Every structure is written in C-alpha cells, then in structure tokens.
UniProtKB/TrEMBL annotation:
SUPFAM superfamilies: Amidase signature (AS) enzymes
All copies of domain Amidase, residue ranges: 91-554
UniProt GO molecular function: catalytic activity
Gene3D superfamilies, alphabetized: Amidase signature (AS) domain (3.90.1300.10)
Name of the protein: Amidase domain-containing protein
Originating species: Penicillium argentinense
C-alpha cells in the first residue's frame, strides 16, 4: 500500500514557528519535511499493526469464565465496588492467600474486566460507547490469583486517582464504613471501605453486602495510607521498586506504588510477599529489587518475631529505637486530637513493649510536600491524563487511552467532580512556560537530599513515627445543587484536601516504606459533643522505615500491638 503523508510544508513551518525559529523555503524545508514524513510513516505503521500482549501478562486461567457485572445499589451501600466478578485461578501455584477475598483498585488491570480509573465513561469509551476491557492481568493480579485468592471485583477509586479524599469518583462519593456520608480517604477509597466494613460489621452488626478480606491500592502521595488511616485498618506503601506497578495506570512514575490494605498485620505480610518481586517489565524496579525467588517470607518473619523466645527481662520491643518525628507533629492543619493521640499512644505503647522512644528532628520534612509538588506537578498530566510513557521501556495498560486534548465538556465534568485534576492539567503548560524542565530536575535532586535527611535520622532510630492523616474523616462536600442550596464550590472541594498528605507524600519521593497503623478513635471537628459512640472515627499512626526494610516496619507494628495489649491489661 502506498504511503501518503499527511504532513504539509505549512505544518512544518507552523511547528517551527511554535518552537521559535524559521526554516527557509527551498532545500532546508524540503529536507526537514522529508525527515518528518519518515517519522510519520514509522508511527502510522506501528499504529496500524496488531498490539503485543506480553505472555507474563496474559490473563491467568480461571475456574470459570471471566464474567463481570455492575453491583446493584442495594448491594453496594458504600459505593465501594465498581465492577464485580468471581475470579479463582484454575491452577494456583501456592496457598498463601487461599480462602482470602480481594478487591483490586480500579486503575489496575484485571483481564476481562473494564477499567474506568474512577472517571466518566465518555472520557474513556471508543466510538461504540463501550468501556475498555483489559486484555491483561497486571503483575500483582496474576500473583494474587496464583496464590489462591478470590478476586471479587474492582473497587471504586477517585477520578483519575487524583484526590486524597473520597468524593470525586464519577459514580459518586465512596462512604466511610464507620459513618456514612464521611470520607474514606483517597484515592484507594473503595478498597479501604470494603476491608474496613469487616471490622464494622463485627463491632456494630451493620450489614454492608459483599465485602473483602484484602484490598490492593495505589499510592502516589498517600493513597493507600490515607484511606487506611480514615478507615481504621492497616495500609502499606512498600519500598519504591519492591512491588511491580506493571498494568496499573500511572500518576507519575517516580511516585507510583502499589500496596496492600488489610485489617491485620498478618494479612498485610502475606499480601506483600505475594505482590513483591521483580517482574522484568516495570522500569521503576532497580537492581535493589529482589527477584521473586529472593522476596522475603514476610508472614514467617512476622510470626517468628511475634513468637521468638525472650530472655529474662527482655520484651518484644527491646533494642528497637522509635523516633517521634518532631516536624510531623507541627504540620499545618494537624488537629490537636490526632497530634495528642498519636504522640501519647506511641510513647506509651512502644515503651510498654520495651522499645526506646525518643524525639528526633528532620527539619527538611517541612519541605517534603513542596518537593513532591515541584518534582511531579509539571509532568503529571502527561502520565495520568495523556498516557505517555516514562521514556524507559515499559508496558502500559494497552486498553486505556483517556480523551486528550481536553474539551469544554471534559472541563465541566471534572470541575464538578474533581477540580484537582483540572489544576493538574493547567499546571503542565503554565509551569513549563514559567520555569521549564530545569526546576523540575532540580526538585528531583532535592528529593535525593530529602532521602539523605531521613537516612541520617535512621542512623539514630529504626522507625520514624508521624501522624498519618491530619484529622479524622470529614463529611463529603456537597456534590450537587438541590433545594437546600448550591453544590460546593471549587475551593470548598479543594480546601478540604489541603494538608491531608503532608506527612505521607514526602515518603513517595524518597521511596521509604511507610505503614498506617490504627491508633484509636476521635471525634471529627464537625461532630457535636452529644454524638453517639458510633460517631467516633479512626485515627492512623504512620510508621516509616529504612528503604528495603519493610519487614522491620511490620515488626515495629507488632511491637506497637503488643504494647497496646500490655497497656490495656495494666
């Protein structure tokens, strides 16, 4: 077939003008036009060729056909499910997760199921109006099925995964299992609510329909840990590069993590062991990333730590040094209730279990969120909105290509639901014009400096303790106008999220493992003093460890649990 170029001389001159120079007509213009047309021919050839599905990502064979359905509202009271399924591997290779049910965040590919990334169908659908169906299992999905788990469906997430609160999904807010109408945190909102519902059902007898034992979420600024904090469960952001991100929609490659959510440490350890290890496809993984055969047996390590024989006078936490990160207890927006609960409980419970607790200062922590913003905001739209590759060989989900460039309809849809994403879109061209790539590159270098600052602290302590979310869960903003008044404004929606990730985002840019641990309950700022006991909402404490020492973070959480039991028995 004869190739007919679509690039004209006029387009060549227009491109040059936008770059700030002029190409003379004649041989120079003809040469550059020919070169552009050659590149065009290569792109059109690839565009028309069949796609390639890597064998490692081919959907795992399941006992039954991969069917899916949308849950009825009555069966989805928290709006936590997106699509339901019942996937069990036909030939699992281990029993690590046998009997466990799992929800997968709706930005992670599940073969045979649609993916919406929390946004509107019209921003994802092709001309037929059909949602894109995944032809692959993400690496973590294949591994979960191979470990004997049952995947019950995809869990709702925030619109383009760009919110630390849970009001922005196209299908409506995801509700906190502890109190309907309140945030469950984002962006892994549905996964957290479905796991937390198990606890609430046991304690309060409230029915939630079908829920799960385990959840998998994504974390770029706290999107596993913040929902865990608001929901009263455990949520781990592993060391950067420990768990492959292959098959998940990226928010920013330098920040992308996938992590487990569960109601027990043992379940966190088991799911981490299954998810972790080099997959040969994810450029986020480094020479430090363990091969699958070299992944630590986290459940056994945790069990051995809990059950090891103690010498006379020794306690479970003996020898462990816990540092209360001074600056994390001074961040703007941190409520007195959360500050006092985390600091007092950490001192009391870790000390009761034999650990040494001391205050430690990392002044650069105050700039952590600023570095996070400068290092990622200029380019973030390219990854999450435009689906661009990172520049390193990678395997992006082949079925997802969101609408780009945006139009007025897209702007209005997103402004009404998640104006933070519109801000991300606007930030790219604005920051590029006024600052250029040099400042973003400098922010990356500052991330190395921030990592070094934390690493210096880890020469004095084994674990850093911070508050996780700065408050307990707050009510959702009003998403629609009604007889009682207008919908919440753009700033009403955005102001609720300001400061939520101040203590979590820094560890995304540095790559340290961080775990949100349930730390008690408190009353929200909008709750009256005569609220019932059911209105108490969870508080989360964040434990941060040295890079690649995720096992130490889990051990520290076990020490915390033992100290809490000893304190309650005293």
């Amino acid at each position: 077939m004869t190739f007919r170029s679509r690039i004209s001389a006029e387009e060549l001159h227009d491109a040059a003008t936008k770059l700030g120079f002029k190409i003379p007509d004649g041989p120079e213009a003809e040469a550059y036009l020919h070169l552009l047309q050659s590149a065009e021919a290569a792109m059109r050839r690839i565009q028309s060729d069949d796609d390639y599905i890597h064998p490692a990502l081919s959907p795992v064979e399941t006992k039954d056909p991969r069917l899916y359905w949308e849950p009825a509202a009555a069966d989805n009271p928290m709006n936590a499910w997106k699509h339901r399924c019942q996937l069990i591997a036909a030939n699992p290779t281990s029993t690590t997760l046998r009997g466990k049910t799992v929800a997968i965040k709706d930005n992670i590919s599940i073969g045979g199921l649609p993916m919406t990334v929390g946004t509107f169908a019209e921003l994802l659908c092709d001309d037929t109006g059909a949602l894109p169906i995944s032809p692959i299992d993400a690496s973590v999905v294949s591994r979960v099925l191979a470990a004997g788990a049952t995947i019950k469906g995809s869990s709702n997430c925030e619109n383009y995964c760009a919110s630390p609160l849970s009001y922005s999904a196209a299908s409506g807010p995801v509700h906190n299992a502890w109190l309907h109408g309140y945030t469950s945190g984002g962006s892994s909102s549905g996964s957290a609510s479905l796991v937390a519902a198990n606890i609430v059902e046991r304690e309060q007898g409230a029915p939630f329909g079908d829920v799960v034992d385990l959840g998998i979420g994504g974390d770029q600024a706290g999107s596993v840990r913040i929902p865990a904090s608001y929901s009263g469960i455990y949520g781990l952001k592993p060391t950067y590069g420990l768990v492959p991100y292959t098959g998940a929609v990226s928010l920013a490659p330098m920040l992308d993590h996938l992590g487990p959510l569960a109601s027990t440490l043992e379940d966190i350890a088991s799911l981490l062991q299954v998810m972790a290890g080099y997959d040969g496809l994810d450029p986020r993984m480094t020479p430090e990333s363990p091969l699958r055969s070299q992944v630590q047996n986290h459940p056994r390590l945790l069990s051995d730590f809990r059950n090891r024989t103690l010498e006379d006078g020794q306690k479970r936490g003996s020898g462990l040094k816990i540092g209360l990160l001074i600056e994390s207890f001074e961040v703007p927006g941190l409520s007195d209730e959360v500050r006092d609960a985390v600091r007092q409980a950490a001192r009391h419970c870790f000390t009761a279990a034999g650990a040494e607790v001391l205050d430690i200062s990392v002044p650069m922590h105050r700039d952590g969120s600023l570095i996070w913003t400068a290092a990622s905001r200029m380019s973030m739209s390219e990854w999450v909105c435009q689906g661009k590759t990172s520049g390193f060989l990678s395997f992006l989900p082949p079925h997802i290509q969101a609408r780009w460039p945006p139009d007025q309809d897209m702007y209005e849809l997103l402004t009404a639901t998640n104006p933070a994403l519109v801000n991300v879109m606007l930030s790219g061209p604005f920051l590029e014009k006024h600052f250029g790539a040099g400042v973003e590159a400098k922010a990356h270098r500052k991330a190395f400096e921030l990592r070094a600052a934390y690493d210096q602290a880890f020469t004095q302590v084994d674990i850093l303790v911070t508050p996780c979310a700065p408050t307990v869960a707050m009510p959702h903003p009003k998403m629609q106008a009604d007889a009682d008044g207008p919908a919440s404004s753009i700033m009403d929606k955005l102001s609720a999220a300001i400061g939520v990730t101040t203590n979590t985002a820094p560890f995304n840019v540095t790559g340290h493992p961080a775990l949100s641990v349930p730390c008690g309950f408190g009353r929200g700022p909008n709750m009256s003093v005569d609220s019932t006991s059911a209105a108490y909402l969870p508080i989360g404490m964040q434990l941060v460890g040295r890079r690649w020492e995720d096992a130490t973070v889990l051990a520290a959480a076990a020490v915390w649990e033992e100290g809490r039991l000893l304190s309650s028995d005293a």
